[in-house]
Design goal:
By secondary structure, this protein is of the alpha+beta class. It contains three helices and 13 strands; from the N terminus they run E-E-E-E-E-E-E-H-E-E-H-E-E-E-H-E. The protein has one domain. The strands form four sheets. A four-stranded antiparallel beta sheet has the order 11-12-1-13.
């Protein structure tokens, strides 16, 4: 029996100006190209820029090796605002990747609810817990599958 959890990663900023949205879908609109504009420094390995999720390169490699279902990776552009640059002038951010979630919650290792909550299997959560997820809220999902 697999247990599922809703995880809510920390939010370091918002969609950047170079983000391209497909407005032919219902909200949240499909993101075609992703730019994340950071306002604050969160050093977690998974972050949320609604409606998207990004992961560090080291977490991406672990998730690719895990070969879970319901997600794949793509490129993301990371930018920072002026205040971020003032506070952290010499900081080099890690390489991030867009974790595109396409799975069904409660079936795949990663999926999205209609409210756009990220649902992960206990197997995937075990991987995430090996990394820095200190800003993530983790809630047990009220359903199980066999």
């Amino acid at each position: 029996m697999t247990t599922y959890y809703i995880i809510e990663p920390g939010v370091p900023g918002e969609l950047g100006e170079k983000t391209i949205l497909d407005y032919s879908t219902d909200p949240p609109y499909k993101v075609v190209k992703l730019e994340c504009l950071f306002y604050v420094l969160l050093d977690d390995d998974i972050l949320e820029i609604h409606p998207c999720f990004i992961v560090t390169e080291r977490l991406r490699k672990a998730l690719e090796q895990f070969q879970g279902t319901g997600y794949r990776f793509d490129d993301v552009e990371i930018t920072t605002d002026e205040q971020f640059a003032e506070f952290y002038p010499d900081l080099k951010l890690p390489n991030y990747y867009w974790m595109k979630i396409y799975g069904n919650p409660g079936i795949d290792d990663a999926g999205l609810t209609k409210r756009h909550d990220l649902v992960v299997s206990d197997r995937l959560l075990d991987i995430l817990r090996r990394f820095n997820i200190q800003h993530c809220t983790i809630r047990r999902r009220p359903f199980r599958t066999t």
